[in-house]
Specification:
About 35% of the residues lie in helices and about 25% in strands. The protein is of the alpha+beta class and about 100 residues long. It has one domain: Nonspecific Lipid-transfer Protein, Chain A, CATH 3.30.1050.10.
């Protein structure tokens, strides 16, 4: 899956979700997707900015999470997902996964 496609999926899901109440950055195969959820709605960009929470994941793992073939908690515990920063914000990511 291309970075553009990943970005489009996050933009669609973030637009349909309630404001996250912070900033979240996904590093997907070294490409940034930045979600600013501080306003009345989430805005998504490809900006590589400082975020309250950063989630590092590969495209392959992201696809497995999206498809429901990989449990998010097992992926974190198995080192397939790395999370730094605000863990409370990380818990809200489920609303962006579908």
């Amino acid at each position: 899956m291309s970075h553009q496609k990943v970005y489009e999926q996050f933009a669609e899901r973030a637009g349909n979700a309630g404001p996250l109440g912070g900033t979240l950055k996904f590093m997907v195969d070294d490409n940034a997707i930045f979600i600013d959820g501080n306003g009345e709605e989430n805005t998504v960009s490809m900006e590589d900015a400082e975020a309250d929470c950063t989630i590092i994941v590969s495209t392959a793992v992201l696809e497995q999470l999206r498809d429901g073939t990989l449990n998010p908690m097992m992926a974190v515990m198995g080192g397939q997902i790395k999370i730094t920063g605000d863990m409370g914000l990380a818990m809200k990511v489920q609303s962006l996964m579908g």
